[in-house]
Inverse folding.
């Protein structure tokens, strides 16, 4: 059943919703697989890019004064290629799987809300990229802190799988966290969350951001926590400003008779009456 076979309000039977969800998932997975193939082909330059933060760690605690990543198992090489390919695939296919999410939800939205969603979708990818870029430039700071805590008479051996898991978690946690302010703007535009409510919850929001940053970051060091929390708070402030102007514009466009009771007479619009009278005089 296609979308054009659905009702005018986007309603579909439960089984058709499940079939629609299946089709959207298949398209998203296919785009991820195609992106993963590209990541597998270009593994070498991607891996050189991903390991640069580790190469900036001071070699004081490394064997022979050189910090090399270690492969522990026979099959680690294959799984490293696979994990890097999936990271590249998720990034390259993000516009497609984000669109599939929107296409599944869109029929339940009003027409104006669908127009806003196009704008939000266009902003989601750059925000994710901005968060991932910030994670990339801060990864070496967290590595330096924790590797530097090793005693001076010990050698640090970091496995490739451990480092890649750390890098993957950093990139996706930062990228997805930067999407949260955009989600707040979406809730404001569809009328669920007002700027006044955001303003009243500001202190709780700031506290929650710091708690989330302390728990979600893989290294949980103070530098990485602040690197995630402070830009996120700035983005939430930007979201509040956008919500403020949107609420003001919506208030100006509100129906002047919306708050009247059903049995209450509405005031006369004298300007409209004069305009109709002048129009009648011109017609005569």
């Amino acid at each position: 059943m296609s979308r054009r076979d659905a009702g005018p309000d986007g309603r579909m039977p439960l089984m058709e919703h499940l079939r629609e969800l299946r089709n959207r998932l298949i398209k998203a997975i296919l785009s991820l697989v195609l992106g993963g193939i590209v990541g597998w082909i270009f593994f070498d330059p991607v891996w050189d890019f991903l390991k640069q933060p580790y190469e900036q760690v001071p070699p004081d605690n490394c064997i022979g004064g050189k910090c090399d990543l270690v492969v522990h198992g026979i099959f680690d090489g294959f799984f490293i290629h696979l994990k890097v390919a999936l990271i590249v695939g998720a990034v390259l296919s993000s516009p497609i799987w984000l669109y599939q999410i929107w296409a599944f939800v869109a029929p339940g939205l009003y027409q104006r809300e669908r127009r806003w969603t196009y704008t939000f979708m266009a902003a989601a990818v750059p925000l994710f990229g901005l968060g991932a870029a910030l994670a990339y430039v801060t990864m070496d700071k967290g590595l330096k802190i924790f590797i530097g805590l090793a005693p001076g008479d010990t050698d640090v051996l970091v496995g490739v799988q451990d480092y890649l898991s750390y890098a993957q978690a950093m990139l996706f946690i930062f990228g997805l966290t930067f999407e949260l302010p955009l989600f707040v703007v979406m809730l404001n535009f569809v009328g669920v969350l007002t700027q006044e409510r955001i303003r009243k919850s500001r202190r709780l929001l700031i506290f929650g951001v710091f708690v989330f940053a302390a728990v979600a970051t893989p290294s949980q060091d103070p530098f990485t926590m602040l690197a995630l929390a402070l830009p996120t708070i700035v983005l939430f402030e930007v979201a509040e400003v956008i919500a403020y102007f949107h609420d003001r514009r919506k208030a100006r466009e509100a129906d002047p008779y919306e708050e009247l009771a059903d049995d209450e007479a509405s005031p006369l619009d004298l300007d409209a009456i004069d305009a109709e009278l002048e129009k009648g005089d011109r017609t005569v």
